[in-house]
Amino acid sequence: MKLSTLLKEKERTLSFEVFPPKTSDRMETVLEATEKIAALQPDFMSVTYGAGGGTSQFTVDIAARLQEEYGTTVLPHLTCVSSDQDHVKRMIHVYEEKGLENIMALRGDIPAGGAPCHDYTHAIQLIRDIREIAPEICIGAACYPEGHVEAHNRDEDLQYLKEKVDAGVDFLTTQLFYDNTIFYHFLYRAREIGIRVPIIAGIMPITNASQVKRTVEMSGTIVPERFLAMVDRFGENPDAMKQAGVIYATEQIIDLYAHGIRNIHVYSMNKPEVAAGIQASLSAIV
Predict the structure, then answer these.
(1) pTM of this prediction?
(2) SS3 of 211, please?
């Protein structure tokens, strides 16, 4: 199913993200995790694209399997920063041939030790290529409630986001955030400049203390004091930290739903127990 249709028809959605293995010998383990998450029957599952496109075939294989064997609506990612235009065009055709109706179009991060391919410098170029090559495919794109780390300011970032939407994006999914007020302010500003497509709130549960520093460095997200207090108190107890992280994420989601936000995407990091814990806590809500 196209996500543009799903997001329009359902009162609320809850979805989860998985990522492919870096090497083929890990594929069985990843498939086991993705199948357990699919068994929870989320509204859809996204499948990320490895740095530089190095695991692109794994992305296709996992997405196609979820769709064919489990009837799961899937959102495979496609990144472009380290790929030439010919490779990207081939991948778009592969997605079409596999019957995949949705693509998450991302610039992507340059892998460590890698180099960009100058065919693409921004996601908008990829969006335009997808729309030209496969006009019927539903396209998603990323947005950043706190502004992209490379943007000069939030206003500039928002104007660029409007250009992406105007290029043919059907929906947006946010970068992670830990303070819902930031998301609400972003949503107001996005609507004010004319961005009308659905905006899915992206939530990443922090289930171990080592994630915090890495996550903040990569995304530049603001971490509230109460979140830091949670990590300080439970960070050295793995079981307690996992439980606290799931509860914090669930509370964020409940607040979002209570404020009329209809669509939530959980960056579940191939952890079925995290996805199951969140879903169980929302069983009467979603």
Answers:
(1) 0.95
(2) helix
